[in-house]
Every structure is written in C-alpha cells, then in structure tokens.
Amino acid sequence: MATILTPLINGKSYEWGDIIVNFLNVPISGIVSLEYEERQDKKNIYGAGSRPVSTGNGRTEATAKVTFLMEEVEALQSAAPLGNLMNIPAFDVQIVFVDTSLVPRTHRLRNVQFMNNKRVANEGDQSLQVELDLLLSHIEWT
Q: Which end of the chain is more exposed for a tag (fewer CB within 10 A), N or C?
C-alpha cells in the first residue's frame, strides 16, 4: 500500500534565511547559530498497583545558547557596561520567522543575560565564531 504524503504549503518550509534575530532591539546579521528550549520536570505518581495513577509537573527551565561571528561580539562588548558582556542588564531576544508564504512566528527569550565571554581560534579558521551561553527566565512561543 502506497503512503500518501501531504505536501508542504507552497512547497516551503521554515529555514535559516527567514529568521530575524533582535538582540538589545537591534537585528543581528552576524549570528551563526541559535539554540533555545524549555524543559519541564515531569514525574509519574504512583498509588495502588504497579502503574502510575497520575502525573506531577515540576519546574520549567529555559536554556539557550548563541553563536556569533566575533565582530558582532566585539560590537556588543564595546557597548556593554565596563566592556563586559556579562554586565549587560537583562534584556529580551526576539526571533521572528518572516517567510511570507508561511504563518509568521515570533519567539521571545525573556530576561536574557550573557553567562560567559570567551573566544576560540584555530589554525585554518577563515572566520572566528563565538559561542555564548544565555541565562533566561522563560520563552514565549507566540
């Protein structure tokens, strides 16, 4: 029996080229990678018998990391208090998926702070990328 596949709307999928990322209310073009997620602690609750009788929900934790081209990090650092990324007060990051043939999506990372400031360079690198960990309170998946 043949499987019938549902085609994508207009043959289009969300892609990296459709993303606009705003850090400190400024669109950043030198962003190479962005990863963010929320995880909630969930646990089965047991009562009589050997199977769970309900589920308990615990804390929700949001995590994120971003990779910039080094020139973007240096520009952010130049504007940071005392020249240190980790001194920038909490701010929001807005990620907008803007393809006109798909449903627009906006995600917001709330109360973001930089957790580290590092550089890595290797022989043969043609551009330097800087991966930074972010502390945030939560994500709005609107």
A: N
